[in-house]
Amino acid sequence: MFADTYIYLIKDRGISLSEYFNIYSSCIFISSFHILYFGVYLSIYLSIYLSVSPETSPRRKATHNAADAAANYIRWFQETMAEKTARNAAKSAATFIRRSHESKAEKTARQASETAATSAIVSESSAQKRTRWQRDAISTSAARAVEGRTERLERLQTVNQRHHAQRGL
């Protein structure tokens, strides 16, 4: 397609090789996301570009400039979409990786705390539990007789903290 089109343009239109490469590369870039439409882009661009000779009249020059502006807009739009797509893909990949790492860290922490709590509960035998409960009950009943409100609150907080520590909470 490249050689046939270029020969036609050289013979009939007098376009230089550099002009043709500019047109051809613009159409390749524009159609990079829609590869099936490359021929359509090339033929439209060439028909606009070749139908106008900038030297003939101000009106034709304006039309030629409009064709160039349209091609530049299409090229800019495609570049912008490509940049946006790449940026969004990078963002979503980073978010996915960060979330997967966070969830792994959270999962590991949760499993570690569950394992510690389970091992603390399992390691304490029934007799040890009964002894601890009796000791707490005796100390509580003995302390109630002589303590005031503030002391009782402090004692209950201490007992609760000890229970939570043994459960691994």
Helix-strand layout with pairing:
Elements: H1 2-13, H2 17-30, H3 38-51, H4 58-123, H5 126-146, H6 149-167
Helix pairs in contact: 2-3, 3-4
Keywords: Membrane, Transmembrane, Transmembrane helix
Concise account of the structure shown:
With 169 residues, the protein is an all-alpha fold. It has six helices and no strands. Helix 3 packs antiparallel against helix 4 (58-123).
Structural commentary:
The chain has 169 residues and is mostly helical. It is built from six helices and no strands. It folds into two domains: 2-77, no CATH class; 127-169. The longest helix has 66 residues, at 58-123.
Provide a count of the helices.
6
How many β-strands, per DSSP? 0
Total domains: 2
As a percent range, the share of strand residues is under 5%
Shape: rod-shaped
**Class by helix and strand content?**
mainly alpha
Largest sheet: none
Reading the helices and strands in chain order gives HHHHHH
| Radius of gyration, CA atoms, in whole angstroms | 40 Å
State the separation between the terminal residues, measured CA to CA.
Answer: 74 Å
Spans where pLDDT lies below 50 across 5 or more residues: none
Helix content: over 70%
* Mean residue pLDDT: 67
Transmembrane segments: 23-52
Biased composition (Basic and acidic residues): 100-109
Region (Disordered): 100-123
Keywords: Membrane, Transmembrane, Transmembrane helix
